[in-house]
Amino acid sequence: MQGDNSEAIYVIEWEDDGQGPSGVVIDGTQYGTHLFKDPSSKDKKLVSCKHCLKQFENVDTRSIVLHMNRIHPQVRRDMTYEEYMRLFKPSLMKHAHGIEKNMEKSFAIDLRKYVLCPENYQEVLYYDETATIIYDKFPKSEVHLLVLPRNYRVSNSHPTLISSETKAKLEWHIEWVKQFIWKQFTKRYKITQTDLSKERFLQEFIQYGVHSVPSMANTHIHMMTRDFHSERLKNKKHFNSFNSPFFIHWDKLPMTKDLSDKEINDRYIKNYDMICPYCSSNFKNQFSKLKVHLAEEFSKRFVTNVEK
User: Fold this and answer.
1) CA–CA distance from 61 to each of 26, 82, 97 (Å)?
2) Would you state the torsion angle of the CA atoms of residues 252, 258, 259, 264, taken in this order, to the nearest 10 degrees?
3) Measured between alpha carbons, how far is 93 from 8 in angstroms, rounded to an integer?
4) Cα distance between the two ends of the chain
5) Are residues 91 and 234 in the same domain?
6) How many domains does the chain have?
7) Aprataxin C2HE/C2H2/C2HC zinc finger domain spans which residues (predicted)?
8) Whole-angstrom Cα Rg for the chain
9) pLDDT by residue (tens digit) across 213-230?
């Protein structure tokens, strides 16, 4: 078990001091060695997860399997707790797991698997010990990626609190994604805007940062082209979440939140005018007109590459 948990990706909350409950719980899930019974508990039917201390009814195998698959996806069914400790070398971190340990059925933890076991997913573009890089499954522009920090504390903290130290560690990944976006975009489109050089494209046509009120539990950095030319862009909320102060640009982080989530949503999503990123025209609440306008502006600057 690692002593210093400042760089930890994997954490556990149960500490085996050699005197506590360490016996196998036969629960029929093949996760028995990852569970324990607390002899001091009055309810003898309860078992607890060694990773996060969540409690289950001993016979509730369905909930246990769901919990392990969603909250601890790096743990294989055929992997004993001892094997896990040897292979992953998790750090002991008391109270590390917050409400997410009870969010097995929520879409909000869908990014968790890419943080904890990116090697298992073909859609992962790149990963190392610092970050995982994937496409956004619901892209709001032509090229839209996510950078997922893998440090446990960073991944499970509010994204607006990303420190300068963390930003420095992610600098290589940010530059990697910029170059990747350029390559992918120019594969699809020829740039007809004469003053949009590669240098200017990288500096001005790619935006990256975080949402002030994220919809996903794990910290993720959006990196995307500023065309907003996408079928997935369907309403004002989608647009303003990237084109208002709701979106915190990378160079503004870390940032302290002065407003509640509701105040932020009301001010920057519901009541904020929609401004065209190309020409700064104000479309107020007229999303349909903005959508047509964005397509027109896009076609002025980019032409689909014809495959030879």
Assistant:
1) 10, 21, 21
2) -10
3) 9
4) 55
5) no
6) 2
7) 243-300
8) 23
9) 999 999 999 999 999 999
Cβ pair 289, 283 in contact under 8 A: yes
Q: Write the pLDDT tens digit of every residue in 9-44.
A: 999 999 876 545 455 566 667 888 999 887 777 787
Length of the chain: 308
Residues 101 and 118 in one domain: no
Task: Round to whole Å and give the CA distance between 120 and 234.
Answer: 31
Q: What is the SS3 assignment for 45?
A: coil
Q: Please compute, for residue 48, the number of CA atoms within 13 A of its CA located in the half-sphere on the CB side.
A: 20
* Whether residue 236 sits in one domain with residue 118: yes
Is 249 among the residues known to form the active site? no
d(CA 307, CA 170): 35
What pLDDT score was predicted for residue 24?
Answer: 55
- Indicate whether 51 and 129 sit together in one domain: no
> If DSSP codes are grouped into helix, strand and coil, which group holds residue 211?
strand
Note down the domain range covering 211. Answer: 110-307
